[in-house]
Amino acid sequence: MASVNAAGGGIVLSQLSKSYGQVRAVRSIDLMIAPGETVALLGPNGAGKTTVLDMMLGLTRPDGGTVSVFGVPPAAAVRAGWVGAMLQTGSLPQLLKVREAVTLVASYYPHPLPVEDVLRLTGATEFANRQTTRLSGGQARRAYFALALVGNPDLFILDEPTSGIDVEGRRDFWHTVRSIAEQGKTVVFATHYLEEADAFADRIVLIARGRIIADGPATEIKARAGSRTIRATLPGVDVASLVALPGVLSADRHGDAVILSCSDADAALSALLGKFPGAVRDIEVQGQSLEEAFVELTADQPDDDSRSAGQDGGDASTEEETRW
Amino acid sequence: MVNATHLRYEILRVYRFPMTVGLTIALPLVVYYAITPSNRHHLTEGIAFPLYYMTAMAAYGVMWGAASPGARIARDRASGWTRQARTTPLRAGTYLASKVVASYLVAIPTIGLLYLAGASLGVRLGATTWLEMTGLLLIGVTPFAVIGITLGHLATADAMVPAMAGSVLLFALLGGAFGRLFTGGAGLTIVKLLPSYWLVQAGASASTGGGDWPAEGWIVLAAWTAALVPLAVLAYRRDTSRT
Hints:
The complex is a heterodimer of chains A (324) and B (243). Chain A is an alpha/beta fold. Helix content of chain A is 31%, strand content 26%. Chain B has 13 helices and two strands, in the order H-H-E-E-H-H-H-H-H-H-H-H-H-H-H.
């Protein structure tokens, strides 16, 4: 198979912007995705995920900025057969059976996969002889997936690919996506299922109100949300001295137990141990779930341009670096 | 340019759309057999009625067939398939060319069946004349293929059927597909400016020795095509331009 990836560059979005009337759907996004990465665009509805993906596909024209897919404009990458997509509002050609639709799309690509293999892989074999208009929601999603897969592209762009699929179907779907990713394909998917982003992406790009607000491995995203919690037993300490520690957002005491909510748990923990040598016992550091991180990161984003450093809480110690 | 698989499925889709089959094949045949036997020995402008009506009904059928890709374009747009297809390497030119080629290929059985019907009611022509007539029908239907594509990109799926039926029926009626409306005067001068008039005249022109249309017919068809193609391109561009 011709590896176009070698040619260069993966996907590069630079200063990408798009407005619909007064609504600024995408605001000056910069993003680089390396060939072979599996990246989740995670965000609430209306965050701009679909607009970003549509611009990667060349379906939507940016107001500003550029998109490059493997070194060329998106439309050229699509024309070369390097891209397979599942759109959010997916569709199948009418008056054809599922197998025919998959065969049809295969004929558009230079190096397609065998149709029967793709039907089997996507679990579409059992309804391959059914008219495309007579499918259940879950079956239709499987058929869309088959269409994206059959061209054997190097880049998969999947917009909310599992919406409307039951739990079992979802598991099958991600199992297949993972095997695709293992072949070195690049996968970019949009989702608002946090578990999916967490479980299946190498990297999560968190998008809210048209901006990237966090970008990194799932573990980093959770840390980025600020508050990891340190619990420890530390008798006779006053709360004010705990709050003064670096990386601590707020502190609480219940008897001998202290609970520190931290923006930088690593710094906080070493400061804590340094300040109270030998006194701190039963240390527990807890990361919050991605769900909590998500809510925290997407809430209260200022609507104007500055990405203000002041998070909620009003503590003085939120001077954390924005490394993203 | 034309992808064989795409073309094959395009034709398959035509025949799976019952309205197209009904309007392009069944209806012209039924009307032909309903009207012709009782007028078998009439002459229309010096041409035997069975021959005149055979080409008239063939013209009517191919007009429907040629315009019918428009209905599938409108459906593909409504369902989102056109947009989905733009994420594949399928080129717009291939998409449109396949629709047009499919409509010509679909026209051929219509013409063939009408010829058989004509022959069964006594139409006898030389092989050259049959071929010339077929050629003229296929050329003459071009403006209707372009009209179909234009409407397909302009109208919604719901509006498409009335819009298409309205234009095809109007052209067919004025062009004389259901019988001559005018035999002279201003009326005839005006209907002679329509492509459907010359389409219906294909049989008359071929069988009366001329072989093809008089210059007037060629000019009218060329003018309609030249005027409609930019309109179709405009409609297509407007519809598929990235937003």
